[in-house]
Amino acid sequence: MRKDRNHGNAAVATFILLLLAGRSGATAAAFELEEATIDSIHRAFAAGELTSRSLVELYLRRIASLDPALHAVIELDPDGALAATDRADAAARSGSSSPPQLHGIPVLLKDNIAAAGPLNATAGSLAMVGSSPARDAGVVERLRNAGVMLLGTASLSEWCNFRGPGIPAGWSPRGGQGKNPYVPSATPCSSSSGSAIAAAANMAAVTIGTETDGSIMCPSSYNSVVGIKPTVGLTHQPCRRHHHITKDGHSWIQLMPITRTVSDAVHVLEAIVGYDARDAEATRKASQYIPEGGYRQSLKIDGLRGKRLGILRKDFFRFPLGSVQEKVFSEHFDIISKMGANLVDNLDIPSMNVINDAVQSGERALMLAEFKLSLNSYLSELAKSHVRSLSDIIDFNNKHPIEESLAEFGQDYLIQSDATNGIGRTEERAIARLNKLCKRGLEKVMQDNLLDAIVAPGASAHSLLAIGGYPAITVPAGYASNGVPFAICFGGLKVSEPKLIEIAYSFEQATKVRKPPSLQHSII
């Protein structure tokens, strides 16, 4: 049985608790769910302290307790998840083969990633409710093969923040307004807001988000979680034809993990990267650079030693003098130096004013054109859907206006996208402009200064990294005077993930900044 929610968090909570009350199996009493990692879960499995079923039940109870306030989850499939746990536990008891890499790990998918079965993939849009994908997105197929338990879908900014300008971050008609678990009045940021909220609040072991330009980096920063944005092509690019994901069609979209630790993010990254025959063009080249032995070998305590890091100051560090952020970053840079890294300070990227302006850089033109192309292709292949084109979605929205307080924001981006006609001269000029900005910007600065990575606060470098499909890792760095989290970002050139993982893991272990939110929750 599927349980869907449209502003019905309390109903979801009641349903889950009634469902679990009827189960004969008891949940694990001794296991500590909060801040549990993939490794700690697997140790508990091995020690007989926990089963996959009891773990999923614990997470479902936590969702029931917290989601009415946080709005991090759109849809759940508790029956499907629990049935999968029984199969996983039976396989583990038989001992006939080694368990897969992510055996028994509960996962929430962002609500723009298609999974075969009862779950919708709607990008937060009411127009997509009732749609049925023909098969799993490539990343979901890989996750299932790795042994995960799919709990349901996480909320987001509608159409991944591409409905129209001004829509509040973390809001969608299906999910309502997502809340920052640290400071509810603060932004959860967009568009993978629900994935970040759920990971931060320990509502799933792992969550999966997507990013075109800042959609992982920003919510990871504001919710004190780790986000890995891999090189474009390491995971299949769902914006391309036949890839079953309802996301804006930018050529640089990536699927990626959001977790509470760098180690967990790397575990998931290993499971989802690699060549995908359904996305051969995008994945063939990048997959050649996946290190033999995987990425976990880069989880080194001394990973900062000998690294050369460039600190981007101008256009990035905009904290008030004397602020908590200014003090904390100064302390972090001292730690990074003591860990053996060489810091090159006061670097700046030429033309950041252009890079940060999606219209001037040409990024907006590409997003508008490719959104329509990819979305129409996706809709045409759905096994079942009430809408088959972007035009249908616009018509649906006209007939079903959003709540009055948000009506002024409209659906301008959808309308502008529907007016495009594929990749023409305007888009080709935009591609050329973006390539030039990359070569004269990040690539030149890193090459001239012999850098292993750049360092910037929070998501301030999101557009810089997005336009070239460059990788990055955000790691919790501290909490402002009002309690809102902020992060540090390590970014690099394409396929530099091994170096970035070494740097990020070493920093995380040396600082251990992350703390769970102080949530006042109770089982309803």
Automatic annotation (TrEMBL):
It comes from the Eukaryota. The keyword Hydrolase does not apply. Keywords: Signal. SUPFAM superfamilies: Amidase signature (AS) enzymes (SSF75304). Residues 1-28 form the signal peptide. It holds the Pfam family Amidase. Residues 55-460 form the Amidase domain. This is Amidase domain-containing protein. It comes from Panicum miliaceum (Proso millet).
